[in-house]
Amino acid sequence: QKEVEQDPGPLSVPEGAIVSLNCTYSNSAFQYFMWYRQYSRKGPELLMYTYSSGNKEDGRFTAQVDKSSKYISLFIRDSQPSDSATYLCAMSHNNAGNMLTFGGGTRLMVKP
Amino acid sequence: DVKVTQSSRYLVKRTGEKVFLECVQDMDHENMFWYRQDPGLGLRLIYFSYDVKMKEKGDIPEGYSVSREKKERFSLILESASTNQTSMYLCASSLLDRNEQYFGPGTRLTVT
């Protein structure tokens, strides 16, 4: 079993829909959680960074962490075709600039 | 904005050739990382470096070496390229004590 699991998709939604992307993990020591967006044939770009449990909002994006369930989510409101990309979750057990553990990514397609 | 650049976007090499992939960052980051990304396997760490001339093995270092002679530059070397090293190679950097990694655009290497 992988340490971090993501449904690879593709997840196809109509424009304007609320999108929910999720990761589950097995290592309870993870405390720092990130979401990256990766467009086709490009490098990942950091979208959201959260620590421990709770919610964090940035524009149309909300990151949610539930450490008790070992489950993190990224919500995208009013989804746009430009949101079509692969979304990767990543996590770490400390903030020491060490290695991150990545999920395999979920491919999202937003149809106009 | 953090800028991480990689020497080539696309590269085609023959089996047995020595291959150099270069990465440069302009934000004075201490940490630099080399990953490969393959469908179904996600991002896997090859090597990372937290200082000039320092290196640490990641999850899959076999068949690779690295060099960090200057803080801003981190090179990945394939001593004798093989077909199973055909992949997307991603470089990233971060501050010494921060988890947020910033990625370059990637190099798609094909070994024939």
Describe the structure.
The complex is a heterodimer of chains A (112) and B (112). Chain A has strands at 4-5, 11-14, 19-25, 32-38, 45-51, 54-58, 61-66, 71-76, 85-92, 101-102, 106-111. Chain A contains no helices and eleven strands. In chain A, strands 2, 4, 5, 9, 10 and 11 form a six-stranded mixed sheet that branches. In chain A, strands 1-3-8-7-6 form a five-stranded antiparallel sheet, with no helix packed on it. In chain A, 0% of the residues lie in helices and 54% in strands. With 112 residues, chain A is mainly beta. In chain A, strand 9 (85-92) and strand 10 (101-102) form a beta hairpin. Chain B is mainly beta. Helix content of chain B is 0%, strand content 54%. Chain B has no helices and eleven strands. Chain B has strands spanning 4-6, 10-13, 19-25, 31-38, 42-49, 56-57, 64-70, 73-78, 87-94, 102-103, 107-111. The radius of gyration of chain B is 13 Å and the shape is globular. The model of chain B has no long low-confidence stretch (mean pLDDT 94). The A-B interface holds A 8, 32, 34, 36, 41-46, 49, 88, 90, 92, 95-100, 102-105 and B 4, 30-31, 33, 40-43, 45, 48, 50, 58, 90, 92, 94-106, 108.
Mean pLDDT score of chain A: 93
In N-to-C order, the SSE pattern of chain A is EEEEEEEEEEE
Percent range for β-strand residues of chain B:
over 45%
Radius of gyration of chain A: 13 Å
Q: How many H/I helices of chain A?
A: 0
Counting copies of identical and different chains, the oligomeric state is heterodimer
The count of β-strands of chain B is 11
The helix/strand class of chain B is mainly beta
Largest sheet report of chain A:
6 strands, mixed
Structural class of chain A: mainly beta
Short description:
The complex is a heterodimer of chains A (112) and B (112). Chain A has 112 residues and is mainly beta.
What topology does this entry show?
The complex is a heterodimer of chains A (112) and B (112).
Chain A: E1 4-5, E2 11-14, E3 19-25, E4 32-38, E5 45-51, E6 54-58, E7 61-66, E8 71-76, E9 85-92, E10 101-102, E11 106-111
Parallel strand pairs in A: 2-11
Antiparallel strand pairs in A: 1-3, 3-8, 4-5, 4-9, 6-7, 7-8, 9-10, 9-11
Chain B: E1 4-6, E2 10-13, E3 19-25, E4 31-38, E5 42-49, E6 56-57, E7 64-70, E8 73-78, E9 87-94, E10 102-103, E11 107-111
Parallel strand pairs in B: 2-11
Antiparallel strand pairs in B: 1-3, 3-8, 4-5, 4-9, 5-6, 7-8, 9-10, 9-11
